[in-house]
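Q: Two folds, back to back.
A: First:
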Amino acid sequence: MPEDRDWEAYKVPPTRTPVSERITSVPNPVTFLQTVFNYVVDAPVTFVREWIERQQAKNKFYYYHQKFRRVPDLSECLEGDYLCFFEAEAQWRRDRMVDQEIVEIVRERLGACKQREGPNQFQNCAKEMEQLVQVTKAYQDRYGDLGVHGNARTCLMKQKHRMMEERKAQANASQ
């Protein structure tokens, strides 16, 4: 390429199209409304939100690591102490959900063992099978026959009746 170009012959197009600015004595109402909105609505909301986020960052709360304190059992509540009754009921529901999850985890372990072992599942998964039998028996002893509307009081009565039957059977066996 030749070094001496004729710049007049090959003009470079402009990089941007020039914008003609209108100059009037009346201000643009859109920019005025945007400025008013920014200072009246957006700035305070943004300030409050950032302040709340800073406060939450200081006090992180992990709901999935929530630890509930153990409350007295329903049998330990005084007569007419309805707050104690409510707390015992909530504790019983949490215990029931935990026990359901334990049964489900043991069941999943047995299923995984059966899947892994294939035809040898009966001899190689005997430990998991025995554990599932123990866990389901314990769950059935505690929560069985309560139904969907079972609560801490009916569970306690069931436990009391079972203990009374065991004592009667023990007394009859010793005679």
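A: Second:
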Amino acid sequence: MALVPYEEGRALQGLRRPTATYRFAGRTVRIRQDWERRGVAAVVWDAAVVLSAYLEMGGIDLRDRSVIELGAGTGLLGIVATLLGKGFFVCLEQFTTVVKLAFLRAHVTITDREPALEFLESNVWANLPSELHPRAVVKELTWGKDLGNFSPGAFDFILGADIIYLEETFAELLQTLEHLCSEQTVILLSCRIRYERDNNFLKMLKGRFSVNEVHYDYSRDVHIYKAQRHSHKDDF
């Protein structure tokens, strides 16, 4: 579940709307929201929008990559990752006239805790074209508890938007990141730094990974951090 606090003074009008509409990857993405019954995990927060826009800016090729989103909430980020992972290339074999069409599509695993899955699934399947349904899976993941259902180091990218709010989850989140990572895995976390505990998590993260801030959205006050195991420090 995407865990974020209520922000006093922030206009709640957009969060209380039954849907939030965006344009990503050449498609209209319409996310169902449910603030009244489900609270903060069932609305789209700025960190998910900013990270989705960052992925769309380019420089990160998700095609033919294995991607997992943690604490997906409404599913916007995982939906965008799946849409951006769609593509193909043409291979001309040397000395022949044979043309091969090879489809490169991301495999995206969109996760949250069990109570959030039904709502999450409804958004994911409503916004992905049918041909991309096999390339996305919605799966239960409670940090630190369901790791046996995920192969260690199986993912090229790990994505998370506004998932570093509750201090009591920090140790389990770090354990989960370490389990899912290989030395080549890139972690991208977007967040607004609201409290000192948010900085404390970043310090904990830096104790186990190489961490760099790769983007800052001034208008939304959202940071994006890239993390990799210490042996890999190169930027994109």
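Q: And?
A: The chain is about 25% helix and 30% strand.
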